[in-house]
Amino acid sequence: MNGKISEIKVTKISGVRPLKGKELKDFEIFLKNYADEIVEKWISYFVYHKDVDFEKITKRLK
C-alpha cells in the first residue's frame, strides 16, 4: 500500500508440505526483516528487467 508492504499472508500450496512450529516462526521473522528488499528485487527483475545481485544472508535473525 503506497509502496509499502501492509500485510503478508502465508498460505498452503497444494503438494507442498506446510511449515509448522519453529520453521514457520523463523520464516515469519525472515519475512519481517527482508520483505521490502524481496519486493524491491522482484520489481527490479520482473518489471524493469534489471539484473539483480545475489545476496547471501549469513546472520541469525531474531
Mean model confidence by pLDDT: 90
Largest sheet: none
Strand-pairing-aware structural class: mainly alpha
Number of domains: 1
Rg, Å, rounded: 14 Å
Low-confidence stretches: none
Total DSSP helices:
1
Q: Give the termini distance in whole angstroms.
A: 26 Å
Account of the protein in words:
The chain has 62 residues and is mainly α. It has one domain. Helix content is 44%, strand content 0%. It is built from one helix and no strands. It is globular and about 35 Å long. The model has no long low-confidence stretch (mean pLDDT 90).
Q: How do the helices and strands line up, and which of them pair or pack?
A:
Layout: H1 21-47
Structure, briefly:
This protein is mainly α.
Offer a few descriptive terms:
62 residues, single chain
